[in-house]
Amino acid sequence: MAVIRSVIRGVGAYLPKRILTNADMAKIVDTDDAWITERTGIKARHIAADDEKTSDLGIAAARQALIRSGIDPVEIDLVICATATPDRTFPATAVRIQSELGVTKGAAFDIQAVCSGFVFAMATADNFLKTGQFKRALVIGAETFSRILDWSDRTTCVLFGDGAGAVVLEAQPQKGAREDRGILATTLRSDGRYGDLLYVDGGPGSTKTVGHLRMNGREVFRHAVQKISGVIEETLVTTGYAADEIDLYVPHQANARILDGIARKLGVGPEKIMITLSHHGNTSAASIPLALNQAYEEHRLKEGSLVLMEAMGGGFTWGAVLARW
After folding, report:
1. What residue ranges define each of the domains in the chain, with the CATH number in brackets?
2. Catalytic: 252?
3. pTM of this prediction?
4. What is the pLDDT of residues 4-14, one digit of tens each?
């Protein structure tokens, strides 16, 4: 039976020019390259310029994705931006991106699920496209996490970076078979009981300030491996695929130890996992599309490739998307 699938037509990314290495971090806080590398796997991260806003990063990534897709911006009727670091409290960052790109129809809005934001945004766009409400969507993950870091806290400031990635989705009829192209399944989960393990200690409705990121790293790690592995397995069961049938895993880039733990739990070899953590750091909602873009540029994605994207973020929120390229 024919079904409508959200097919990935293009992918793009943008990273700020400024690079902050571990050696640079050692000049800011009491740390060194060995300490950071051993605990996180991170060697460098990109930092937005003072005059670069989150929307600027998202616009650059979106433009590249649109060019590669061959789709004119006027044909886009849905723009979703996943971000925890919007330009302003309102209007939505997605609305500025929509305007700057020349998208004049449909809807544009932000999604806030922190590091899981891109997965949540993909699932949201997929549901809109499958129901026929929209035809073509631009899904963006864009962050300037450097703006909410406490640069005196070496346990958090060494982890994060700035960047943006984007994909263009198009609703296309498919056969309703395992071989279909496009998004095959999405799984989303949240549990607010863990909200105090990874959070920002400010906000307009509470402190009237932006606040800084705070994290209980040990507890976040403990939950991450379990919850991400669980949602991956659930997604695979839904589609009938086994872990070893996935061609490429594109995980949220949070910590090398988390990535290793998930790979071991699933029994997946390192050659099947896309890792950009060492030179991007944790870019929150931008990390999956940034990694997806790098996989595309390294020719690790071919038509028909099965790609599984997964993430966990503050909230806790977590989820997975399985798609055929």
Report:
1. 3-174 (3.40.47.10), 182-324 (3.40.47.10)
2. yes
3. 0.97
4. 999 999 999 99
